[in-house]
Amino acid sequence: MTLVAAGSVALAAGLDRLIAEPPAAVHPVAWLGRGLAPLDRNWTHPRLVGLGVALAVPLAAAAAVAAGVALAARVDPLAGGVAAGLVCFVCTSRRMLLDEARAVVAASGGDLPAARERLGALAGRDATHLSAGEVRSAAVESAAENLADGLVAPLAGFALLAPLSLPLAAAAAAWVKAVNTLDSTFGYRSHPMGWAPARLDDLVMWAPARASAALLAVAGGRPGALRAARPLARRPASPNAGWPMATLAVLLGVRLEKPGTYRLDGGGSGGDDPLPTRADADRGVAVVARAGWLAFGVGVAVSAAWATTGPGAWPVPGVLPPC
After folding, report:
1. Which residues contact 11 (CB under 8 A, 6 or more apart)?
2. Interval 95-115: pLDDT, tens
3. Do the domain assignments include residue 53?
4. Nearest 5°: CA angle at 269, between 250 and 242?
């Protein structure tokens, strides 16, 4: 059953296409978010608490997932593959985010107040006074950034550990998703305990953010866009988020901007690039959609290649064989 891991990734991709996301009431990531809520309080030593949370919560999530997949695989290898595919599905997100971005872009052309309100599901910024172009910019930026956070990072963890064992692959995806959820919950300046979760997320997302930029460049038909995006990628405060956003700005030839925070002039005009039109934004979301399918395709290919030629293809003392 050496190709079960590749099948698990394919299952996750199919479920993403068919149903987008599990309902919030039964979504494990939503459960995690609600479970973290009691920790949002004033602590005597907030950084120490944050460090403990950053270490313990992702590890606990990974252990629970590994145990569940291992139990399913013990019953039947195919059941283990399905369980791992379900984990990969709930730990990744593509269609729902793209649908939200498309809805915001569509509303920006005729109902700006509705577009501003809906933007809250995508971008953590005050949209009260944003123009239509700024709303579209935020939607496009969020789509690009979430490609890395919501899809490439957990998918990479799964595919890279697939040669060791299916439970470990699923655990890696869950660990990455838990790290990202902690950052989304606490990784703000207003949360003193968020320092450790934010720094851990920066470390974990370093490679996925740059890989996502490469996927966007390929999906947009301009691999050379990465070179033009490099200086722009340093403008946001995040060491990672700027990479996919800057690459998409270059591909679209527009300005992506968070007013008062950063400005990514992708057209190379030196400061006179326009904000995205509705057509520009639709094209940007389409590029992110193609990049997402590329990510799933690479995940399937890597899982299959590693399973047949990588270290998991041979018995390794002390390491679980591939399911």
Report:
1. 81, 82, 85, 86, 88, 89
2. 999 999 999 999 998 899 999
3. yes
4. 35
